[in-house]
Amino acid sequence: RAGWFGTVEREVFALDPFSGRGADIGATRMDRSIILPERPYQVLAEKSPPGFAQVTKYVVGTAGRVLRY
């Protein structure tokens, strides 16, 4: 079963993002993502901290729509 209260078998790998790159960690690539409410996203987008542009951002709006940046 899957869903809100179901169970799904998963396999999780603990990769240290600071230990190495690519073949050093046994991965072909690593993607970084973050899910944010609309207001905190706006603040971060204005401040533009280092590395923020390379992260895939999923923003939840007030109407419940999810946008990808």
Task: Describe the secondary structure blueprint for this structure.
Blueprint: E1 33-37, H1 38-47, E2 56-60, E3 66-68
Structure description:
- With 69 residues, the chain is of the alpha+beta class.
- It has a domain at 31-68.
- The chain contains 1 helix and 3 strands.
- Helix 1 links the parallel strand 1 (33-37) and strand 2 (56-60).
- The chain starts with 32 loop residues before the first strand and ends with a strand.
- The mean pLDDT is 79.
- Please tell me the overall pLDDT: 79
Q: Structural class from helices and strands?
A: alpha+beta
Q: What is the share of helical residues?
A: 10-25%
Uncertain segments are: none
Strand content: 15-25%
Rg over CA atoms, rounded to whole Å, is 16 Å
Multimer state: single chain
Distance between the termini: 32 Å
Question: How are the strands of the biggest sheet laid out side by side?
Answer: 1-2-3
Q: Would you count the extended β strands for me?
A: 3
Shape: flat
N-to-C SSE series? Answer: EHEE
Task: Give a short account of the largest sheet.
Answer: 3 strands, mixed
Please give the count of helices: 1
